[in-house]
Design a protein that fits this description.
The protein is of the alpha/beta class and 478 residues long. It contains 16 helices and 20 strands. Strand 17 and strand 18 (451-457) form a beta hairpin.
Length: 478
């Protein structure tokens, strides 16, 4: 569908406005499940595609929007109440991931139709789930001869693109924002949208508003934020009119914080690095408190509370690729789900996938049953999401309070939840501690989310807590 065909007031007004008008306050309690549309599922009754391994992962493997819709029950069974899907726009060749836009106003036909997209979002809303669109305002898909005039309108004007056509020099901030991302596999530069051009700005803002209102998205995840000048983003986010989380691919807390007033939320790469250090590499767990102190100083508590915590995603090797001990993965996930911030769980993590760097970390999920009890990790995620919901605003509106930290154990509480994490690993023995400084009255009892018979009771502000076999524990006040 070309832009000129959708601008009439009659057409726009006739479209259902399905979005729940969700802002930060509506999103901050959510637990988000990220899918790659092409790799998550095929529709019920459709044959499972063949193998999608090795070089075949560089192109389409067959997942669809209807596949996601038909597996919403699986996602919900793990307690997720929001999903983040791949960019939905039509892409250039082999753009299975969605980040190589060709036509902003056309749904990618490899994923499905406009009607399929609307049906997915409607079905998710019926089940009480938000849907987040992945969007790109930095670049479009690779095109032969850099011929941007071959794109469908409105993004077919050469002045809408930076004209330098040279790879980014990552040591030069201006180059990072104005030059071209290079696809090393294709040895091609991605056309870089000129977000200083008033016409391009108008069209990008118009498009994101259209996308949200036409299909009913509740939020957006913005790709490659650091590759666009910072002052572009407030207008873009305002045009979307819903919650937005941005990807600034950096573990530098200062650099990440420089965007904190431009986008409502940011993916928390410093948290990802923390999990690598403390759980993957089993460094001293005092790093958790150091991280909290740094992030609270750089961001402030309110902003930290809505950053997106993740352990795996589509741009980094999976946790289990470098550290096969699944208990350490579960400890990292417990921290992601209960520390300050919003949890974003990547599809396949629950099934203990262990792919390496892109594209090996983009495995089809249909290799395993869609069963939320199939692994210990999936069962933990489901139980912990129940705890988050049952704890409610008393949890969401509180913060991570450390109460005991040693080299291999960290205990904290947040609202009516007590969490004990360890990096001792599956071969570690039992660790028992008397933990002081709890604000709960004597006699207050907490039950383990994974074993209701495992209970701890506060006595004079203290609890006796044990972790064994490297597993984390999450307790909810009874």
């Amino acid at each position: 569908m070309l832009f000129p065909k959708i601008t009439s007031a009659v057409t726009i007004l006739s479209l259902p406005i399905l979005a729940l008008g969700a802002g930060v306050d509506q999103w901050k309690s959510k637990s988000v499940y990220q899918v790659i549309t092409d790799r998550f599922a095929v529709a019920a009754g459709q044959s499972i595609p063949g193998r999608c391994d090795g070089q075949s992962r560089q192109s389409y493997c067959g997942g669809t929007l209807n596949g996601i819709k038909d597996k919403l029950a699986y996602i919900k069974s793990m307690g997720f109440d929001a999903i983040w899907i791949s960019p939905t726009v039509d892409n250039t060749a082999d753009g299975y991931h969605g980040y190589w836009a060709r036509d902003f106003y056309k749904t990618n036909p490899r994923f499905g139709t406009d009607a399929d997209l609307k049906a997915l979002i409607q079905a998710a809303h019926t089940q009480g789930m938000f849907v987040m669109a992945d969007v790109v305002a930095n670049h479009m898909g690779p095109v032969a001869g850099n011929n941007v005039a071959s794109f469908p309108p409105p993004f077919n004007k050469p002045e809408y693109f930076h004209s330098s056509w040279k790879p980014i020099n990552y040591n030069d901030p201006l180059s990072v924002e104005n030059d071209n991302i290079e696809d090393l596999r294709l040895h091609m530069l991605l056309p870089d949208l000129n977000t200083e051009n008033s016409g391009a700005i108008t069209e990008l803002n118009k498009w994101v508003k259209w996308l949200v209102s036409t299909y009913g998205f509740d939020g957006i995840r913005i790709d490659t934020v650091k590759h666009v000048r910072r002052d572009f983003w407030p207008g873009y986010v305002s045009s979307a009119g819903v919650f937005a989380i941005g990807e600034v691919f950096t573990s530098d807390a200062d650099q990440l914080a420089s965007y904190k007033d431009k986008v409502p939320s940011l993916l928390n790469f410093p948290f990802y690095n923390l999990c690598q250090a403390v759980f993957q590499q089993r460094q001293d767990m005092s790093k958790i408190e150091q991280y909290l102190n740094t992030m609270r100083q750089k961001f402030g508590q309110d902003k930290l509370s809505v950053l997106g915590n993740f352990v795996d995603n589509h741009d980094v090797p999976r946790f289990l690729n470098a550290q096969p001990d699944r208990t350490l993965l579960r400890n990292a996930l417990a921290l992601a789900m209960f520390s300050d911030g919003m949890p974003y769980i990547y599809y396949g993590t629950e099934q203990e996938y262990s792919g390496g760097a892109d594209p090996d970390n983009r495995e089809p999920l249909w290799y395993v049953p869609y069963n939320s009890t199939a692994t210990s990790t999936a069962r933990c995620i489901a139980a912990w999401n129940r705890v988050r919901k049952q704890a409610g605003s008393a949890f969401t509106n509180d913060i991570h309070h450390p109460v005991w930290t040693e080299s291999n154990i960290h205990v904290f509480y947040r609202g009516p939840v007590i969490v004990a994490t360890t990096n001792s690993g599956s071969s570690g023995g039992v660790i028992t501690k008397t933990v002081p400084n709890l604000p709960f009255p004597s006699g207050t009892t907490f039950a383990n989310a994974m074993d209701s018979n495992d209970r701890i009771t506060v006595n004079n502000g203290q609890i006796n807590i044990s972790v064994g076999g490297g597993e984390p524990k999450v307790y909810l006040k009874v």
